[in-house]
Specification:
about 160 residues; mainly alpha; globular
Length: about 160
């Protein structure tokens, strides 16, 4: 998962951009989603996460300590913790992110996954249902629906 995100970010950054840095063309075979909050962060050793060794986590946590209410920093810290299997920390950060972005499909999806991995199926189902309600055609909406089907909680 981490290497896919890093590779996608690298691909997006190699595209031609407008004056605001927004990609103006998509790669031939890949659909580019709108830039995420991750693109707004200062340079962080993102490649450290490809190995899953957590060597960049201290940098992300330090940035979070400096900007504790910045949604883009919260998102990145939640992602970093999630990919390292720190689901309780990731869940708390994604929950905090939902305070400022309550309609975030991504945050609801990953909060659900965290709850599931921590053994709380009821809370997981609540957030997967929210993902499906917010955007059933989004790739995470489709994944949430699959999770609901697997848990026998399809609406």
């Amino acid at each position: 998962l981490v290497s896919r995100v890093v590779n996608k970010l690298r691909t997006i950054r190699e595209l031609p951009t407008d004056e605001k840095g927004v990609p103006t063309a998509a790669p031939a075979e890949e659909k580019v989603e709108p830039p995420s909050a991750i693109d707004d962060l200062p340079e962080i050793e993102m490649t450290n996460y490809e190995q899953g060794d957590g060597s960049g986590l201290a940098q992300v946590e330090e940035l979070l300590a400096q900007k504790p209410d910045d949604p883009s920093v919260i998102d990145w810290a939640a992602f970093a913790n999630y990919t390292l299997g720190k689901h309780e920390r990731a869940c708390g950060l994604y929950t905090k992110l939902l305070e400022s972005t309550p309609e975030s499909v991504q945050a609801h999806y990953y909060v659900a996954n965290c709850h599931f991995k921590m053994g709380d199926l009821e809370k997981a189902v609540t957030h997967w249902l929210k993902v499906v309600k917010l955007n059933p055609e989004h790739r995470l909406g489709k994944k949430a629906r699959q999770r609901l089907e697997q848990s026998k909680q399809v609406p």
